[in-house]
Amino acid sequence: MTFLLVPHEVTDTTATIWVGAIDEADVRERAVKLEYGADGDVISLNASGWTTWETYRRADPNAYPPSDRLLHRLLARSSPVVRTLDYRRVKVERLQPRTSYSLNLRVDGRERVEGIEKYLREGRVTTLPEALPEEGERPFT
């Protein structure tokens, strides 16, 4: 249903980006790439790095959210409603200090997605400077 990216941590030469997939089937089988920078550098997100969180696990039915349990009973469903969030962190390295980088999450080779999901798949980070500016230099903000 939805892929998203969130800048997590930035240093002078690296940026850690959190990537999530909400209710996406077979996310490990999908071609997911993080594009960054003006040169179009790409990091492919392989199948091994994803972690899955689920709203319901048969081994732990008490962990099923109370509202979902009620909805399950009201709808008389034979199986519970299960929502998933697959997520991972991606470390982008060899960046230049004090430089702004645009981020774009491309899924299954598709060009830009329109609408609200477009904004969830795009972002921007600015790396920190190597040192604090000297007097008279542009301030670090």
| Count of beta strands | 8
Arithmetic mean of pLDDT: 84
Largest sheet: 4 strands, antiparallel
Query: How many alpha or pi helices?
Result: 2
| Cα-atom radius of gyration | 20 Å
The helicity comes to 10-25%
Helices and strands, in order, run as: EEEEEHEEHE
| Uncertain residue segments | none
Query: β content, as a range?
Result: 35-45%
User: What overall geometry do the principal axes of the alpha carbons give?
Assistant: elongated
Please give the alpha-carbon distance between the first and last residues.
36 Å
Going by helix content, strand content and strand pairing, the class is mainly beta
Order of strands in the sheet with the most strands?
1-2-6-5
Describe the structure.
By secondary structure, this protein is mainly beta. The strands form two sheets. A four-stranded antiparallel β-sheet has the order 1-2-6-5. 11% of the residues lie in helices and 38% in strands.
Secondary structure topology:
Elements: E1 2-10, E2 15-22, E3 32-36, E4 41-45, E5 51-54, H1 66-75, E6 84-92, E7 100-107, H2 116-120, E8 122-126
Antiparallel strand pairs: 1-2, 2-6, 3-4, 3-7, 5-6, 7-8
Keywords:
8 strands, 4-stranded antiparallel beta sheet, 2 helices, elongated, mainly beta, 141 residues
Question: In a nutshell, what does this entry contain?
Answer:
By secondary structure, this protein is mainly β. It contains two helices and eight strands.
